[in-house]
Automatic annotation (TrEMBL):
Domain VOC, chain residue ranges per copy: 4-151
GO biological process, one term: L-methylmalonyl-CoA metabolic process
This protein's name: VOC domain-containing protein
GO terms for MF: lactoylglutathione lyase activity; metal ion binding; methylmalonyl-CoA epimerase activity
Keywords of the record: Metal-binding
Family matches, as InterPro entries: Glyas_Bleomycin-R_OHBP_Dase, Glyas_Fos-R_dOase_dom, Glyoxalase_1_CS, MMCE/EMCE_epimerase, VOC_core
Natural source organism: Candidatus Jettenia caeni
Keyword Metal-binding: yes
Pfam family, one: Glyoxalase
């Protein structure tokens, strides 16, 4: 039986740009790097001639870690439909913050696409154990949909 989330993998087009975005702008900490190639990884992912680099990062509060993975071979492609909230599949990761309005403003000032200003979820819709939720969506440099979430 599953007892925890180990990590979340994000495939990125430019590893150093993504590391800078997640560490310097969002406050994650880099914990490890690795190069991936060989039969073992080709077997796992079902692709041939794998050459990829990965950087593991973690939020200040701890795990699960994010795995920023950049394939140099074979290269993937960016599909703009994956940035839409209603596309089928894994759609976003939500990051808990304090003072969501300040964080959203900081992202906008850094030139990051923030989908909307923070919005409060109506208490008639849902109230979580952590409290009343305020949220907003934004995009990372590859158009990966992310969420800021604050509970009051």
């Amino acid at each position: 039986m599953i007892y925890a989330v180990d990590h979340i993998n994000l495939v990125v087009s430019n590893l150093e740009r993504s590391v800078q975005f997640y560490t310097e702008l969002l406050g994650f900490k880099e914990i490890r790097r690795a190069h991936l190639e060989g039969d073992w990884i080709e077997s796992v992912v079902g692709l041939k001639n794998i050459h990829a680099d990965v950087v593991y990062i973690v939020a200040p509060a701890g795990e699960p870690r994010l795995e920023l993975l950049c394939y140099t071979s074979p290269r993937g492609e960016i599909l703009s439909i994956n940035s839409l909230a209603n596309t089928i599949g894994l759609r976003h990761i939500a990051f808990r913050v304090e003072n969501i309005h300040t964080v959203a403003r900081h992202l906008k000032e850094a030139g990051i696409k923030v989908i909307s200003n923070p919005v409060a979820v109506p208490t008639s819709t849902v109230t979580h154990d952590a409290g009343h939720k305020i949220l907003c969506y934004f995009l990372d440099p590859d158009g990966i949909l992310l969420e800021l979430a604050e509970y009051q």
